[in-house]
Amino acid sequence: MAKNRELSTIEHGLAEAINLIKEGNAPKIQQDESLSSYEPPCENALAHIEWFRPAKQVFDHIRGCDPQPGAYTTLRKETLSVLNVALGMRDGPAMYGEVISIEESGIRLALNGGCLLIGRIRPQGERAINANDFAKSIELKTGERFGV
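and the corresponding structure tokens:
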């Protein structure tokens, strides 16, 4: 019941804002520059993936770094960027960062409380490629781990 009431309030507020814009009556509020700050672009040092973190955190981190600078990890002591990811649930035990399947749509890794489907991988100094093609090119096997 509370959720429906919240949604109704949000819908009402959104409809009101749209009408004000359509009518040309939306308030123009000047930003107080003394309260503003500048956030520099994300640097590569902040883009390292920590696979042990909770699944949603890992997913959000990778998405936040995509496309630049590109969240990165290691596999077989090589650095690669991870792109185009999807978060999901997993069945069965596995270590975080462990390859649990290689599918047409990409590489599925175990996470702490879920799994991650990697759609594209960019090996260091190369162009991004489909994760499935990458897996085939290096003969990746289930059970291997990213980030160790």
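(Above: one complete record from the training split.) The mean pLDDT is 90.
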